[in-house]
Write a structure and sequence with these properties.
- The complex is a heterodimer.
- By secondary structure, chain A is mainly alpha-helical.
- In chain A, the strands form 3 sheets. In chain A, strands 1-2 form a two-stranded antiparallel sheet. Chain A has a two-stranded antiparallel ribbon with strand order 3-4.
- In chain A, a hairpin with a 2-residue loop joins strand 3 and strand 4.
- In chain A, helix 2 packs across helix 8, helix 22 runs antiparallel to helix 25 and helix 23 packs parallel to helix 25.
- The longest helix of chain A has 19 residues.
- The radius of gyration of chain A is 24 Å and the shape is elongated.
- In chain B, the strands form 2 sheets. Chain B has an 8-stranded mixed beta sheet with strand order 7-6-8-1-9-10-5-11, sandwiched between helices.
- By secondary structure, chain B is an alpha/beta fold.
- The chains are: A mainly alpha, B alpha/beta.
Chain lengths: ~525, ~425
């Protein structure tokens, strides 16, 4: 069994995966990972509190647009977008396979070997090593991959087909789902993605379909598939449909042993092979695994599914309350292309509705972390990934750590409260002071700069958008103290106040918008 | 780290004009002087649809045993491990709830059965949303029932402006608390402050405050946060020592309850607190007297018992209520679990509770007595329970504001009027 005797040593010899595993093991003592779970609901946040806009001077359109389709601006992204034009930049980002990402790929291959392992091998490894590597790699890709839109799509589908990482066999199997379901189809065809998810061992375990048998069907997957993955809660299905879909998926399960352990299998012995009626369509008896496949075809092509899925995409990329015109256009593309996700995204990203939606979406914690590290152009090592993961646990958005099947909420109102503001501010304070272990940013400035110069330079670098004059003056006063705005600052004053200035910029309302 | 203090704040403000929120911040400490006779409400949400049939077990209903061959809880019997704990001959508590039996015997705990939402949704997310808004079946009102309770008190002249008047424990604020009255989300009292060297620069926090000093979407949240930081720093709430030998479980839920107790003891004007306990979505391997659900029940019971013990001297002014979005199917499935159902059980706990008795009207579990597709019926609307608490313990007669369009048939007599 040489190949099961793991490269655990290799992992420990390399950097990032290990530091992540260690850090997440420590976090395991924290409530989020304990057996007592805190299932938070998705609510109709939009109805609860509509955003009223930022009240701030708007950013340059290209700055805003590039921010919206990345985890945050790096200076190089903006240069590239200005060169290509936004349409050209979108086109480039919609073809991630043509973007050279070899630097990131090399790091992943060297430091995160579990990403590439087959399930039977993963299942022999320490679960903390496996979960830590996937969370760490996800963070690393968000920070450094040049395929930024692709990474945002991966994040979107990860939440649409949410799987909680830290229970049952999903410590190991989510790695396979991430690779073979989410990443494989993130810009592909929706029906393919849905089918891959339905047969994904991680999903079969998470929503209990692995235990769904004709002797007593388990409705968990059937209901959430209809409610969350396809038609939507008001999409026109009934309790009867839930029960019929559950019966269609009886026997879809996961192999427990052997070289294919952790792979999908269909067990005819536990399958209810009778005829079904699903959403008004007859499915004949005797199809075996074909019953579930037929259900997937019916649901993927159902008109409610197009509306449900594209509305969520519009909410993700445009606004909590996207214009009906945009939903209609995106749904038309979805229907006209039989669910081509890339083309749906092209419709959304090249729309006038997107151009007019600056300051409509707040950064969620994952985007706050991504944008801060990218704006600072900070270096992040394995410890740094662990530090950032710790910050995300505090802020409530570590990837794969959402327990119920609806995924992290995507509405401004969900992510703003006293606790959220405090944690955002404390992250900015830590980053400004270079106080997060393993995360290092360079704030060196020329000799004897003035307060005004420092403020203008740093806000241009970190925000790339204009400030209200009163806000600029506040920052200059913070830096200058009793000195005039344009007086050269003593070195000691720069040293004392500069971390605070960086923190104030990251903590400001300007930085909270996507 | 140095906490914000008002003097440095005023100095840093210099010649700048005062923002509109300033008086509220300046006088926030007056909230500590509020002495309301209404109870503090502690609202516990069991996320994921708890199995009420295995919580307050209908041991006298044979259909229960017929439909649950592997996960049913035994009828009470002396010397039988894992048997239900008898309450009134017909109902018994799950054995993991032994710590609640003590409170039942002290007549401060009242279970209610066959209670829930009249809306038939079997979706967790929709049903939680309906329940927290207090408007089953309707999405037209976007605020939570607890927030509307506070707003209606304000409209009637209430003056509690404490940042800790309404608190949700966790990273996201509970829907029940959302609305026009500011509510604070809090993970940890001990960690609720700004951290880092820059905070020792006197102008840091005032500058941060003024960057948010406009009318934008974020401004109100930012000011509430700064207000909460300031209030807590002034209250000097350090590490917490539970009283009367109470021992909270080390779980998320236990820690959350201890935070609520600490806030009450700090006398910061807490009126309502929301907290969550998860792990109830038992489609698979639910277990019976032992197993997955028994472990969560044990956590619930140990937590509530510790809270009652800790706060014993104040429980005459505290009411705790538990709820879950719906119950679970009577028939167990083939994977040893239960799918989404309808009617459920709730608990009310407090010094003003007429405990020691199970409330509600039992509809029976025979096939003809079930709600589709095989669920316990709801014979008591959850709002009937909450309305009685709001009216009698929270001394708020404006039930039409809290539960618009709902007319409670008549109260169950769960609680005594607040004194």
């Amino acid at each position: 069994m040489p190949d099961t005797l793991l490269s655990r040593r290799n992992l420990f010899a390399t950097g990032a995966g290990v530091a992540m595993a260690g850090a997440l093991a420590e976090l395991a003592h924290e409530p989020l990972f304990a057996t007592a779970r805190s299932d938070r609901p998705l609510v109709d946040w939009q109805a609860a509190a509509p955003a009223q806009g930022s009240g701030l001077p708007p950013p340059d359109p290209i700055v805003y647009l590039v921010n919206r389709i990345t985890f945050g601006l790096r200076p190089s992204d903006l240069d590239r977008a200005r060169g290509l034009g936004f349409a050209g930049f979108v086109d480039e980002q919609l073809n991630p396979e043509l973007i050279d990402d070899s630097e990131v790929d090399a790091v992943l291959a060297a430091d995160f070997p579990t990403l590439f392992m087959r399930p039977s091998r993963l299942l022999t490894l320490d679960k903390q090593v496996v979960t830590g590597a996937l969370a760490g790699a996800t963070l690393y890709r968000a920070l450094y991959s040049r395929r930024q839109l692709y990474e945002l799509m991966v994040d979107f589908w990860t939440n649409h087909f949410n799987i909680y990482h830290y229970e049952k066999e999903d410590f190991w199997l989510k790695t396979v789902d991430d690779r073979e379901v989410i990443r494989r189809h993130a810009l592909g065809n929706f029906g393919d993605l849905l089918s891959a998810s339905a047969a994904s061992p991680a999903m079969l375990v998470y929503l209990d379909n692995a235990h769904n048998t004709k002797a007593g069907p388990n409705e968990n997957y059937a209901r959430e598939m209809l409610e969350l993955h396809t038609l939507g809660v008001n999409g026109g299905y009934t309790q009867q449909d839930v029960q019929e879909v559950a019966r269609a998926f009886t026997g879809w399960t996961v192999l427990g042993k052997g070289a294919n352990a952790g792979r999908f299998t269909f067990n005819p012995a536990t399958h209810d092979n009778g005829a079904r009626n699903v959403l008004g369509q007859q499915i004949p008896a005797g199809l075996g695994v074909g019953h579930g496949q037929r259900v997937l075809e019916i649901t993927a092509s159902h008109p409610s599914t197009a509306v449900h899925v594209v509305t969520k995409l519009c909410v993700r990329f445009v606004s909590d309350t996207p214009p009906q015109s945009l939903i209609d256009a995106a749904a038309a593309t979805f229907n006209g292309t039989q669910g081509d996700i890339r083309e749906v995204m092209r419709t959304i990203l090249t729309s006038d509705e997107l151009r007019n939606a600056a300051d409509q979406k707040l950064r969620r914690p994952f985007e706050v972390v991504g944008a801060a590290v990218r704006a600072l152009d900070a270096q992040v090592n394995g410890d740094g990934l662990a530090s950032l993961a710790g910050a995300l646990v505090l802020m409530g958005q570590l990837p794969f750590n959402w327990i119920p099947p609806n995924g992290y909420p995507d509405a401004n109102a969900a992510w703003v409260n006293t606790n959220a503001m405090l944690n955002r501010w404390n992250l900015g304070l830590a980053l400004g002071a270079n106080a997060l272990k393993g995360v290092t940013a360079d704030f060196s400035v020329g000799s004897s700069p003035s307060a005004a110069h420092l403020v203008d330079q740093l806000t241009a670098r970190l925000l790339a958008r204009p400030l209200l004059p009163a806000h600029r003056q506040l920052l200059v006063r913070f830096m200058a103290g009793d000195l005039p705005n344009r007086a050269p600052l003593p070195a000691q004053q720069v040293k004392t106040n500069l971390p605070g200035l960086v923190s104030l910029i990251l903590d400001s309302p300007y930085f909270q918008w996507r | 780290m140095r906490h914000f203090n008002r003097r440095s704040f005023l100095r840093a403000l210099g010649g700048l004009s005062l923002p509109a929120w300033f008086p509220r911040l300046a006088f926030a400490s007056s909230a500590a002087r509020i002495t309301a006779r209404r109870d503090t409400l502690v609202c516990v949400f069991q996320r994921g649809a708890a199995d009420g049939l295995n919580t307050v077990v209908p041991v006298g209903d044979n259909a229960y045993y017929d439909k649950r061959p592997t996960i049913a809880i035994h009828q009470p019997a002396a010397g039988v491990t894992g048997a239900a704990i008898d309450l009134d001959g017909f109902f018994g508590l799950h054995p993991a709830l032994a710590p609640l039996k003590e409170l039942y015997d002290q007549k401060v705990l009242a279970p209610i059965h066959a209670v829930g939402s009249p809306d038939p949704s079997h979706s967790h997310f929709e049903a939680q949303d309906f329940m927290e808004r207090g408007t089953p079946g309707s999405k037209t009102i976007g605020t939570g029932w607890i927030n509307r309770h506070l707003a209606s008190l304000d409209a009637a002249g209430a003056t509690n402006t404490s940042a800790f008047r309404a608190v949700g424990i966790g990273t996201l604020l509970q829907t029940a608390l959302r609305g026009q009255v500011p509510a604070t989300a809090l993970q940890s009292i001990a960690d609720f402050h700004l951290k880092g060297k820059a905070t020792s620069i006197p102008s840091f926090q005032p500058t941060l405050s003024l960057l948010y000093g406009d009318s934008s979407f974020l401004a109100a949240h930012a000011q509430e946060t700064l207000d909460a930081i300031t209030t807590l720093a002034a209250a000097n709430a350090g590490t917490y020592q539970p009283q009367h030998g109470a021992k909270y479980p080390a779980s998320t839920f236990g820690k959350a309850l201890a935070q609520v107790a600490q806030l009450i003891r700090a006398n910061l004007g807490l009126e309502v607190a929301c907290l969550d306990i998860g792990g109830w979505d038992t489609h698979f391997a639910e277990g019976g007297a032992t197993g997955a659900m028994a472990r969560v029940l044990a956590d619930l019971a140990a937590g509530l018992n510790a809270f009652y013990t800790d706060m014993a001297d104040q429980m005459s002014h505290i009411t705790v209520v538990t709820m879950s979005e719906f119950g679970r199917r009577l028939l167990e499935n083939a994977s040893g679990g239960t799918d989404h159902g309808h009617g459920n059980s709730m608990f009310v706990l407090g010094g003003g509770v007429n405990g020691g008795k199970v409330y509600g009207t039992w509809p029976g579990l025979a096939p003809a007595q079930l709600a589709s597709p095989g669920d316990l019926q709801v014979t008591t609307d959850f709002r009937t329970v909450l309305a009685e608490i709001v009216s009698q313990r929270l001394v708020n007669p404006q039930l039409d504001q809290v539960f618009p369009g709902f007319q409670a048939p008549s109260f169950l007599g769960l609680v005594q009027p607040a004194s």
